[in-house]
Amino acid sequence: MKTKCFNIEKLIIGIVLGWLICFIFIPNLMIVITSFLTKDDANIISLVFTLDNYLKLLDPMYVKVLWHSFYMAAFATLFCLIIGYPFAYIIARMQIKFRFFMLFLVIVPFWTNSLIRTYGLKSVLGTHGLLNKFLLALSIIDKPLHIMYSEYAVMIGLVYILLPFMILPLFSSIEKLDNCYLEAAKDLGASRWQIFRRIVLPLTIPGIIGGCLLVLLPALGMFYVADLLGGAKNLLIGNVIKTQILNMRDWPFGSATSITLTLVMAFLLYIYWKISQKIHKKVEMEI
Amino acid sequence: MKKIINTIYLFMVYAFLYIPIIVLIVNSFNVSKFGQKWKGVTFKWYGELLDNDSLIQAAIHSLTIALISATCAALLGSLMAIALYRYRFKSKNFIKGLLFVVMMSPDITMAISLLAIFTLISIELGFFTLLIAHITFCLPFVVITVLARLSGFDIRMLEAAKDLGAKEWTILSKIIMPLAKTAIMSGWLLSFTLSLDDVIISSFVTGPSYEILPLKIYSMVRVGISPEINALATVMLVFSLLLVVISKWLVREKIR
Amino acid sequence: MKKISKILLMTSCVVGLSIPNVQAEDQELYFYNWSEYIPAEVLTEFTKETGIKVIYSTYESNETMYAKLKTHPEGYDLIVPSTYFVSKMQKEGMLKQIDHAKLSNFDKIDTNFLNKPFDPNNSYSIPYIWGATGIGINTDMLDKSDYPTSWADLWDKKWENQLLMMDDAREFFHIALRKLGYSGNTTDPKEIKAAYEELKKLMPNVLVFNSDFPANPYMAGETSAGMLWNGSAYMANKEDANLKIIWPKEGAIFWMDNLSIPTHAKNIDAAYKMINFLLRPDNAAKIALQIGYPTPVKAAYPLLPKDFLENTNVYPPQEVMDKGEWQNSVGDASDLYESYFQKLKAGM
Asked: DSSP E strands: which ranges in A67-133?
């Protein structure tokens, strides 16, 4: 009997490890190694060790692109937070029977392919699109706004696609708020702003952080939004990597860029983690 | 007063989320090709959609991959979650680390790493490479969902079963699986969604022999001329809504 | 457990029905072509006549096609490289020699387009379409007095954020090189660098790069001027959009796209059948009329309506043809063009 127990356990662990090693560990290792090799026209890479690929990244052009991607992703995250927080708050405090339906309505657009949704956005934001028609009709503007193919279009696109990712974690964290705290504070004479700042906000930090991560990380890599909405001057790091690998077939450089992006993300995660730990400690001490 | 403000705010956010989709759906019935002026109602774009063999083929391919990879990811992911939960072994942290790497890496890094290994073992890009890629990126989501559910278990229940003489396989199939069912199902659903929607990874690891929908849509959107895309969007939306309604109905049956 | 086994059963049925069959060889043709280049009816006609199924995919630049083929040598049976890519790919052994004896319609081609320097004797390529890039304008958005007449005009500050440019390093650099008086086919690094500096000054005016469907941003009202292919303008006109091509003073860009068979193609017979099909005068005429690009098939000329042949948006007048420059191979310098192009796109 004991040997059979042992076998199933080993089998499961074996399958799990096998898959992970084959398709995650080795591929990523390959990319790390490739980032230190040189490009070779005939065989794609040649086994010559070099740091050139990483040094190339220090070139102002790539620093600029990386910074641009980061700044767009950061702004998109900020807007998602500003729009999403009140939204999640209102819904979380609704009656239970409405709550999930409202949430469901947020997820439904998700069921249409994000490319198609970006395309729909194109028809709304275009010079002859709905938004301009609406603003012109109300005489808010007298000439159509040229939003398409600009930074703003890309940001709007990112927010549009990633908003549900911000709302869901916020919702689940706000929902867990114990009403007792809020009522107690009210009884003790705290103003609404004070209640929000000192109780609601700190207690929902996990949701805020979760939401920010779920938006920021994908936003950094989403090249197709920039591709469709961004025009000539909004090259993001995802586009660079894609061009390096698919068009110029420069695997070493593409790998180096990609690893750098991953490291940047890991670094961001680390900062968020440290901040959340500090805030948690602060909250614990105050309570 | 507060209620009115709240309602207006909610309405505005929903409007933001839905207007582009509504525009898409409305234009799928618009005679005008560019959707800038309303020229009358027609179903001809739906007709063209049905005639567009390669698009339908791509849609079937996408659905197939989504179904199979969601199922495999659900199975494999559940196994992983179980292994992490139940068993003690040295490489636990290694596995957790790898799953974390997958979740955290930008899609594009995953895409090129998979492309690299597929090129190394000289496998032809197509159905199987796509399948493997999709299963791999769905894994962490399934693992997290199932693991969260498993952590809520009373471990004493499992120990009691063991004391009563249950074999490992019995414990797995008769206790753990049924109790984790909802988590596995939501993991499946999440994987299915992720797989259907994936653009980035698929654009790197698929080949000409196996066209999938997101890539087809990508090129159609870039050319941007036919309202067939709008018709497709409407069809997909209706299809997913149906899927959700059906699954809700199935769950209700189960509860009874 | 029951639910899981139901799902497994369902999926295994789906799998059984959908995993692609790998047996039928010359019943299929993997055709990789530029977007907008073949009307769907032509493909369905082909399948009707020959019974061969066409699996069609598109690309928007030679570089994409080249890269895909490098990682995927047996993936495609028929491709359509531009002139300078034919010589590049042939040198790297990526193209199969074409046996003209297998093409009964080969003699229908206008000899003016055969035997060009990039592929003497047409051993590796058969002309499919030729075309020209000129200045495109949306007449709805501009006054007649504002029309640009030369590439150099586009550098004027009044075009800020109004221009569309081809998403192609060679074509984009061509206009700067001509503005500076150099050849669009130069391999001189100094001249290429000068063009790059020139283009840096143009970038504030460029709103979008598009080679998928260049007429689209014009029609949507986002760009009012820029570069445009003659066929794109023609197709836009068919959709009632008022786009026009102005042939620039410094000279338009002429290019030719050719049918080639990759070395490792699997369905070679099907590829030959398709090439021959496309060279048939009635098909060539049909294609030309649909996509608005001039055809090199001489026998098709009598089949084309007079107004098509006289449409200056499609057939540039002789003086324009003489002043313009045909695109040619630049060998290894193409990497230089490409990397400067990336720099411009990144805003450097």
From this structure: none
Query: Rounded to whole angstroms, how far apart are CA atoms C198 and B190?
Result: 50
pLDDT of residue B118: 85
Residue keyed to tokens 């057939």: C315
Of A153-157, B19-23, B33-37, give the lowest mean pLDDT range.
B33-37
Average pLDDT rounded to a whole number, residues A146-156 = 87
Residues facing residue C135 across a β-bridge: C227, C246
Instruction: Give burial (CB, 10 Å; 0-12/13-18/19+) of B256.
Output: exposed
Which two tokens mark C288? 């030309």
Q: What are B249's two structure tokens?
A: 């109905």
CB of A128 closer than 8 Å to CB of B44: no
Taking a C-beta distance cutoff of 8 angstroms, is the pair B134, B65 a contact? yes
Own/partner pairs, C281-284, CB within 8 angstroms, 24+ separation: C281/C105, C281/C108, C283/C42, C283/C45, C284/C108
The CA-atom distances, in angstroms, between B105 and each of A219, B120, B252, C181 are: 12, 21, 38, 48
| Residue that has been written with the tokens 């107004």 in this structure | C307
Amino acid making up residue A231: G
State which amino acid sits at residue C293: Y
Instruction: List, for residues C286-318, the tens digit of each pLDDT value.
Output: 888 888 888 888 888 888 888 888 888 888 888
User: In the numeric block, which tokens belong to residue A209?
Assistant: 């952080």
Do the Cβ atoms of C313 and C233 come closer than 8 Å? yes
**Residue C259 DSSP code:** E
C195: left (phi over 0), alpha (psi -120 to 50) or beta: alpha
Q: How far is A122 from chain C (nearest CA, A)?
A: 10
Give the dihedral sign, CA C204/C210/C215/C218.
negative
Q: Reply yes or no on whether the pLDDT at B39 is more than 90.
A: no
Place of tokens 């081809």: C166
Residues 6+ apart with CB under 8 A from C148: C135, C137, C154, C156, C159, C225, C246, C248
Please calculate the CA angle A150-A153-A158 and round it to the nearest 5 degrees. 130
Q: What is the pTM of this model?
A: 0.80
Q: Which of C2, C18, C266 to mutate to test the interface with B (most CBs of B within 10 A)?
A: C18
Question: How would residue B36 be classed by pLDDT, with cut points 50, 70 and 90?
Answer: low
Q: Measure in Å the smallest separation between the Cα of C165 and chain A Cα atoms.
A: 9
Classify residue A277 as exposed, middle or buried by CB count within 10 Å of its CB (0-12, 13-18, 19+). exposed
Tokens 């320097």 belong to residue: C117
Chains B and C: how many Cβ contacts under 8 Å?
Answer: 67
Contact B92, B84 (CB under 8 A): yes
pLDDT digits (tens, 9 = 90+) for C134-193: 999 999 888 888 899 999 999 999 999 889 999 888 899 999 999 999 998 899 999 999
Closest CA to B25 of B195, B239, B254, B227: B227
Q: Taking the mean position of all CA atoms in its chain, how far away is CA C202?
A: 24
| Calpha distance B192→B77 (Å, rounded) | 13
Residues belonging to chain C with any Cβ–Cβ distance to chain B shorter than 8 Å: 1, 3-4, 7-8, 10-11, 14-15, 18-20, 30, 32, 35-36, 55-58, 60, 71-72, 74-76, 210, 212-213, 216, 219-220, 239
CA distances from C174 to C14, C151, C324, C337 (A): 51, 10, 11, 10
CB C122 within 8 A of CB C96: no
Whether B225 and chain A come into contact, CB under 8 Å, resolves to no
Q: How many angstroms separate the CA of residue B68 from the nearest CA in chain C?
A: 6
Nearest to A128 among C63, C220, C347 (CB): C220
Q: Please report how the helices B44-51 and B53-86 are oriented relative to each other, as an axis angle in degrees rounded to 10.
A: 70
Chain B, 45 to 64: residues with Cβ < 8 Å from chain A are none
Instruction: Give yes or no for residue A154 having a pLDDT over 60.
Output: yes
Q: Report which of residues A223 and C107 the model is more confident about.
A: C107
